[in-house]
Design a protein that fits this description.
This protein is an alpha/beta fold. The protein contains 18 helices and 20 strands. The structure holds protoporphyrin IX containing FE.
Length: 729
């Protein structure tokens, strides 16, 4: 086994492959933090050189003109230079991912707080001094590769660990449950949510007939619908999303003891979301919003961080819950089984090339290392088939050889050949058993780190194509989710259902969603959505929510669901973010602003770790105490929705009060619940922007007390009770 190497404090100069001279523009803006994996990638990188060549390394003297029979004549087939250039261009695309096509990724590392050897042999959890390199790709699910970052959708959260025992992929989402219980239904789910096949409309949205047709006929999706209609589906930034492995997996220790585990990623930036109107506006103003934030924060040195948590269940306790641990539509409430934080992941380096790294990275739930194993969850079992299959189609049979997918522990087996094989395997022997190569490569001895499926006793039974009766309670946890929300979170969920169902044209689909799904989750939710959509709640009653016909031995059935609550589900009840680093503040400037005060404010905001930008009518300057004061951005290009908070320094308010764009800026910040700070001379501006002087999260004052209160408010993220999104002002 290769010896684990900790992250070097000061990386050695990389032996970069160059084509000629490396230009100075190749220098990154921040010293990038290297891991074993990013150092291993270095020889595959290439900086632009000084001399243009063909793919065969032959110098090119003219890359502007094709070869013609005469200067105005036909182009010749002989033109090898043009044919090579154009044919390569014609083949630049690979199939986009069938789901999760839009994404962004970053390098980093995971470091455990202490050894978890008692629970698992998995390499990343053995030694707190050893960091395991990771590559993490975040994604939306339904949209195409060029779609917006901020639709209402699930977000993928896929982590590739380059461990000393091989690659482990933890391919999760930002929601802990899924729409379906059996992988056999996945193609149906995806066909229903993707754009409709006749006209390919709508892009990256669940708000259309086929999605609601499918889910209204699939009650097992009720719990996931609650997550999807909540603000979790419009995360503010990737760095403020939770991540979940979703399925119950197994951890195996060196003695072969197996325990069940659920994986959780907890963001140190807190769990924060956009509000729906803001998300739709961002889609137009900055469709790369999340991708840009991830990139810029890493370039600034403000590295996104998550703690990894385990929820552990002993095998003997498998049946003690009122639901089945194999059912991916269920969570284990954190109040029942606490999430124990075992380590931290830090993303500290942007990719060098989007296609080579982010597009070609190939995840597979079946990529596990010794110490991690699977359960019989029928969704997970299907995924174990699907991901390898899709990588073969999308990237090809040698996808594992691409630099971003390559294991740090070299792959060594008798698999050979196929498109674009890169390894030059030596020798005559490509089979096992063999004697001609001394039996090599041979099975790992029992003591070595090798994957051995854990021995699990399977109950005797008939081979059947059936769902376990322990999977039949579809509503309890959907109700539990609703019960656990605060007032404003319920408001947002009801508004989201209303928005989606108001997009649905088919009356039967609207009615079925109301009377077979929503009423079985909660009567208040159904009534709120009914009011906002005009879909009547059937007074004759609705089909009873199916009660589990063979519930697991103990635990609540749906009839007791009204009592179920899990405060950990509520974003409102999450602990405050551990850091405000990277939150963006707009400082609105106008002619007459107090220049000295602006300087002091910017310094205080920077001290608090905030990213402040001054915004004026143009990208030039405003007039401050008779002198020009340069601004960072022009208001038409710097919309309110891409900032976390707004501050108006003294002197600016009177000029901004009469300017419609500034009024709109401030009004949107108010509607979207953002902290606002103004000086007393901005009273006219507040009035013109429709911001009540007693609004929660609005600070009116001067100097450092104003900034202190403003920064404290930014720590609260938003003041979402200001405006009901269900009944907007
Ligand atoms: C708990 C349920 C699921 C979760 C958490 C999940 C998560 C993900 C994530 C994060 C990705 C994007 C990987 C990347 O960034 O490259 C992905 C892609 C994909 N998923 Fe799933 N998925 C789930 C269920 C399924 C099921 C049931 C299937 C099939 C039976 C499936 C098939 C796929 C496929 C084919 C891709 C595209 C992979 C690629 O081309 O790279 N997923 N999934």
């Amino acid at each position: 086994m290769a010896k684990p190497v900790p992250i070097p404090a000061t990386p050695p100069p990389p032996p970069a492959r160059t084509a000629g001279q490396v230009t100075s523009s190749d220098k990154p803006p921040m010293p990038r933090q290297e891991t074993d994996k990013t150092l291993e990638l270095t020889p595959d990188k290439m900086a632009p050189g000084s001399m243009l060549t063909t793919n065969q390394g032959v110098g090119v003297s003219d890359d502007q003109n094709s070869l013609k029979a005469h200067v105005r004549g036909p182009t010749l087939l002989e033109d090898i230079l043009m044919r090579e250039k154009i044919t390569h261009f014609d083949h630049e695309r690979i199939p986009e991912r069938v789901v999760h096509a839009r994404g962004a990724a970053a390098h980093g590392f995971f470091q455990p707080y202490e050894s978890q050897a008692a629970l698992t042999m998995a390499a990343p959890f053995q030694d707190p001094k050893v960091a395991t390199p990771v590559f993490v790709r975040f994604s939306t699910v339904a949209g195409s590769r060029g779609s917006t970052d901020t639709p209402r959708d699930v977000r993928g959260f896929a982590v590739k660990f380059y461990t000393t025992d091989g690659v482990w992929d933890l391919v999760g989402n930002n929601m802990p449950v899924f729409f379906i219980q059996d992988a056999n239904k996945f193609p149906d789910l995806v066909h229903a949510v993707k754009p409709e096949p006749d006209n390919e409309i709508p892009q990256a949205q669940s708000a259309h007939d086929t999605f609601w047709d499918f889910v209204s006929l699939t009650p097992e999706s009720a719990h996931m619908l609650m997550w999807l209609m909540s603000d979790r589906a419009i995360p503010q930034r990737y760095a403020s999303m939770e991540g979940f492995g979703v399925h119950t997996f197994r951890l195996i220790n060196a003695e072969g003891v197996s325990r069940f585990v659920k994986f959780h990623w907890k963001p140190l930036k807190g769990v924060c979301s956009l509000v729906w109107e803001e998300a739709t506006l961002i889609s137009g103003k900055d469709p790369d919003f999340n991708r840009r934030d991830l990139w810029e924060s890493i370039e600034r040195g403000d590295f996104p961080e998550w703690e990894l948590g385990f929820q552990i269940v002993e095998e003997k306790d498998e049946l003690k819950f009122g639901f089945d641990l194999l059912d991916a539509t269920k969570i284990i409430p954190e109040e029942l089984v606490p999430v124990v934080k075992v380590g931290k992941m830090t993303l500290n380096r942007n990719p060098d090339n989007y296609f080579a790294e982010t597009e070609q990275v190939a995840f597979h739930t079946g990529h596990v290392v010794p110490g991690i194993d699977f359960t019989n969850d029928p969704l997970l079992q299907g995924r174990l088939f699907s991901y390898i299959d899709t990588q073969l189609r999308r990237v090809g049979p040698n996808f594992h050889e691409l630099p971003i997918n390559r294991s740090l522990k070299p792959a060594d087996n008798n698999q050979r050949d196929g498109f674009a094989r890169m390894t030059i395997n030596k020798g005559k022997v490509a089979y096992f058993p063999n004697s001609l190569a001394g039996g090599c490569p041979m099975h790992s001895p029992a003591a070595a780190a090798a994957f051995r499926s854990v021995a699990v006793k399977e109950a005797p039974g008939l081979k059947v194509r059936e769902r376990s009766p322990t999977f039949s309670d579809h509503f309890s946890q959907a109700t539990q989710f609703w019960n656990s929300m605060s007032d404003w979170e319920k408001d947002h969920i009801a508004a989201a259902f209303a928005f989606e169902l108001n997009q649905v044209v088919n009356e039967a689909v609207r009615d079925r969603t109301m009377n077979e799904i929503l009423v079985n989750i909660d009567a208040t939710l159904a009534n709120l959505v009914s009011e906002a959509t005009g879909i009547p709640v059937n007074p004759a009653g609705t089909p009873e929510a199916p009660t589990p016909s063979a519930p697991t031995p103990s635990g609540p059935l749906h009839k007791d669901a009204a009592k179920l609550r899990s405060p950990a589900l509520s974003q409102d009840k999450q602990p405050p973010p551990a850091t405000l680093l990277g939150r963006k503040v707009a400082v609105l400037l106008g002619n007459g602003v107090n220049a000295r005060e602006v300087g002091a404010i910017l310094a205080s905001l920077a001290n608090a770790g905030l990213v402040a930008e001054t915004i004026g009518p143009t990208a030039g300057a405003v007039e401050a105490s008779g002198k020009p004061l340069k601004v960072n951005r022009a208001a038409p290009n710097a919309p309110s929705v891409v900032y976390d908070a707004v501050l108006v320094p003294s002197g600016a308010g009177p000029a901004l009060a009469g300017w419609p764009l500034a009024q709109r800026f401030l009004h949107e910040a108010y509607r979207h619940g953002k902290p606002i700070a103004v000086t007393p001379d901005a009273d006219g501006f507040l009035k013109a922007a429709g911001v009540p002087a007693d609004a929660e999260g609005l600070s009116i004052g001067q100097g450092s007390p104003l900034v202190t209160e403003f920064v404290k408010n930014i720590g609260q993220h938003r003041f979402p009770r200001r405006v009901s999104v269900l009944k907007p002002i």
